[in-house]
Design goal:
The chain is an alpha+beta fold. It is built from 18 helices and 12 strands. Bound molecules: protoporphyrin IX containing FE. It is found in: Endoplasmic reticulum membrane; Microsome membrane.
Length: 502
Amino acid sequence: MLEALGSLAAALWAALRPGTVLLGAIVFLLLTDLLNRRRPKNYPPGPPRLPFVGNFFQLDFEQGHLSLQRFVKKYGNLFSLEFGDLPSVVITGLPLIKEVLVYQDQNFVNRPISPIRERVFKKNGLIMSNGHIWKEQRRFSLTALRNFGLGRKSLEERIQEEVAYLIQAIGEEKGQPFNPHFKINNAVSNIICSITFGERFDYQDDQFQELLRLLDEVTYLETTVWCQLYNVFPRIMNFLPGPHQMLFSNWRKLKMFVARVIENHKRDWNPAEARDFIDAYLQETEKHKGNAASSFHEENLIYNTLDLFFAGTETTSTTLRWGLLYMALYPEIQEKVQAEIDKVLDESQQPSMATRESMPYTNAVIHEVQRMGNILPLNVPREVTVDTVLAGYHLPKGTMVTTNLTALHRDPAEWATPDTFNPEHFLENGQFKKRESFLPFSIGKRMCLGEQLARAELFIFFTSLLQKFTFRPPENEKLSLKFRVSLTLAPVSHRLCAVPRG
Ligand code: HEM
């Protein structure tokens, strides 16, 4: 009997040609893929998916946030997409966005951990951590930021001091064309550096300039097709060369820099007195020593500090660069801002947050820069924490959630001229008017932790620069509103002329 079975198997095997085996393997993989992709009843609609890659290649990587808007038109305010086998949904419109970020926030409070994040941050840090780690780190960071800056007068003074350095550096350009990108990055970064590291870095410091360059490159590399492919097929991409490997190398260098600063702190650390965020974190780590469940340990100090350094540098400086670009492109608006500054302050007075109340036009211009700059066009992603029903659709646990801030900031029902720079959007009878559909910092429990800091930075840097200079396009050079896709939507680098005001 056994012999008969054996010869039957041998005959079958001989009859199978390599082509048949391959076909069988493909059918098997397709079936597995189909099973993996089974979605519950009432799952949101979405464009048809291809096997294995899902909708990965249906998005334009150069302007993903714009290509999504086509799908909104076709599938509505809640639709689904798939990247590899990662399910995701896109949420559009203020009522649904509020439902997700405020009313049902517990079900959407997590971040999806992408393979890149997992490899670089290992579920640690602040921006992309979840659960117990996130709660502990966010609570501590908020308190520490408040103690070392946020909400305190000293913070404003720090920003004013830094502005003076920036004005000097820009003044040295003597009205000639220059690229303001890294000067602004450095100035803005110095504020978060002084809170976290307890020091600022000179604009000529080559090592710090290199660090800012690495940070800028990281934000760009992370959105390249290579890195997106890494997030979908990490095992394959691990073995391939490409920009994703450079991303890992850059993160390594950034981590090493922060680790060195921490080592220096430890050398002259006085447990009785915290000079900055790192000192305070070291104190907190001491308190939790011996508690295995605590998320306060040295590795997390590196990740947390890196997150603050990253979030505190790229966002505000990108917004300021948009601001200067819009001023150079709209000279009549720039003149009105300068007239308002001159009315409220004399030449020797530095702008401060107390003067914002008396500058409704300037405040409206800064808000409009944020609306049009739209630097985080799809917010920072969230993840469904438990099976959830949203607008009648079923969203399984683990679904990635994208909130469509672009549609909100360009909604023709909300904004008189949605695609044109127009500070009147934030004015009513000459007074500043808040707008509900303006959410650059997001809302809810997991909204931007640095909103207050960013608002102070934006106001003081922007008004101080316009008090001293008029920004113009260089002669014979055309400025454009083109953006470079990176983790923040940034203007392509332009040269500007900063003409000193008489
Ligand atoms: C114009 C400047 C800025 C903008 C537009 C901005 C915007 C945002 C947005 C949209 C989020 C995601 C919120 C969410 O998921 O609901 C976020 C998160 C965050 N931001 Fe900002 N941000 C800015 C400046 C800053 C600054 C200066 C800091 C420095 C302290 C900072 C620190 C953070 C952190 C730590 C998170 C993660 C919060 C968490 O996951 O709990 N941001 N920001």
